[in-house]
Specification:
The complex is a heterodimer of chains A (114) and B (115). With 114 residues, chain A is mainly β. Helices cover 0% and strands 49% of the residues of chain A. Chain A is built from no helices and ten strands. Chain B is globular, with a radius of gyration of 13 Å. Chain B contains no helices and eleven strands. The chains are: A mainly beta (114), B mainly beta (115).
Chain lengths: 114, 115
């Protein structure tokens, strides 16, 4: 797939365990963040987003935590399943004056072991 | 669930030739984007498009690139004279309203290979 050759950080977890994927973002003015999942041969798939006026947001089996002080974002996946195996990207958007673009991180490869 | 569709899935083109990548954004979305991912690198923003004009573009998006919404459903990216370094996955995305606080939804991409 398109991620061949990427030297990605890799997280290996056992099926049923919780996963935590971390991301350090670069722009202190960024105030909207998104987590995407990318499976081999597919485009980025939206998982969950969070605005900077929040510290935590929960979805179905996923939670995003935002620490603006240290410019850190994390994605927690509860009861990880084999179908969660993919590359996970955080992306940031600066709202006021920042235009429309998303700036992506390098990604983390999540491997779920049976 | 509505999705962004891209064609072709793989395009092979000789260097110097023109190529057009096609996208059908989600039907009620108003903002459209192109990104690319060179093998081994990050997903990079190329251009955003709203109300029939470019709203923002990156330094990558030079005079060789252009975008168009030729009708009510398609959104295209044209590369006029392709170079070897244009080889990459090209992703189209769309969002319902302003991207400030609204997620962009991506297609599965077109793999562009320049020979």
């Amino acid at each position: 797939g398109e991620n061949v050759g990427l030297h990605l950080p890799t997280l290996s977890v056992q099926e049923g365990d919780n996963s935590i994927i971390n991301c350090a973002y670069s722009n202190s003015a960024s105030d909207y963040f998104i987590w995407y999942k990318q499976e081999s041969g597919k485009g980025p798939q939206f998982i969950i987003d969070i605005r900077s006026n929040m510290d935590k947001r929960q979805g179905q089996r996923v939670t995003v935590l935002l620490n603006k002080t240290v410019k850190h974002l994390s994605l927690q996946i509860a009861a990880t399943q084999p179908g969660d195996s993919a590359v996970y990207f955080c992306a940031e958007n600066k709202e006021a004056g920042g235009g429309n673009k998303l700036t992506f991180g390098t990604g983390t490869q999540l491997k779920v072991e049976l | 669930e509505p999705e962004v569709t891209q064609t072709p899935s793989h395009q092979v083109t000789q260097m110097g030739q023109e190529v057009i990548l096609r996208c059908v954004p989600i039907s009620n979305h108003l903002y459209f984007y192109w990104y690319r991912q060179i093998l081994g690198q990050k997903v990079e923003f190329l251009v955003s498009f709203y109300n029939n004009e470019i709203s923002e573009k990156s330094e990558i998006f030079d005079d060789q690139f252009s975008v168009e919404r030729p009708d009510g459903s398609n959104f295209t990216l044209k590369i006029r004279s392709t170079k070897l370094e244009d080889s990459a996955m090209y992703f189209c995305a769309s969002s319902e309203t302003t991207p400030r606080g609204q997620p962009q939804h991506f297609g599965d991409g077109t793999r562009l290979s320049i020979l």
